[in-house]
Amino acid sequence: MTSIYDFDAVKPNGDEVSLSEFRGEAMVIVNTASKCGFTPQFEELQSLYEEFKDKGFTVLGFPSDQFMNQEFGNNDDIMEFCKVNYGVSFPMFSKVDVKGKGAHPLFKYLIKEKKGLMTSEVKWNFTKFLVDREGNVVNRYAPQTSPKKIKEDLVKIL
Fold it and tell me: What InterPro entries does the record point to (predicted)?
């Protein structure tokens, strides 16, 4: 795989989606969790999405339960939680592993493209990757980085 557009992901309803459907859009790809201290970032991610979706931007959320069991057991509970508590309307996908041997190929690619501090692996929930309109991974943000702080970088690539 040599491009972000070569990957597929599964929606919560089981439908497989090619990331090529997002070709030409800037993206923030983020691993999420419903019961994490960073969970309120859903609100800021949704705000970014609403502000820039008409300018060719989207957020892609990938729930993961690899960090202290901070995610619900099934996709329906995850989606309901996100919608009811944070009004999430950006694309969310089925729960995946984001690190280790079983990591989703997309996340293996993302960490290869943008290594983190000390290790390339995703260290915690809400690690964020900014992807430009050509599908290049241009930046990686730590879990504690507020999505509001991504806005300046996002505007540059829009």
Answer: Glutathione_peroxidase (IPR000889), Thioredoxin-like_sf (IPR036249), Thioredoxin_domain (IPR013766)
Check 36, 96, 122, 154 and give the catalytic one.
36
Q: How many domains does the chain have?
A: 1
At 58, which CATH number?
3.40.30.10
Structure tokens at 52: 């820039």
Please give the model's pTM, rounded to 2 decimal places.
0.94
Distant-in-sequence, close-in-space partners of 87: CB < 8 Å, separation ≥ 6: 43, 46
User: Residue 63 belongs to what domain range?
Assistant: 4-157
Q: Are 143 and 30 in contact (CB under 8 A)?
A: no
| 36 is an active site residue | yes
Nearest-10 Cα torsion for 88, 20, 94, 71: -60
Per-residue pLDDT of the chain (158 residues; tens, 9 = 90+): 578 999 999 999 999 999 999 999 999 999 999 999 999 999 999 999 999 999 999 999 999 999 888 887 788 889 889 899 999 999 999 999 999 999 999 999 999 997 765 567 888 999 999 999 999 999 999 999 999 999 999 999 99
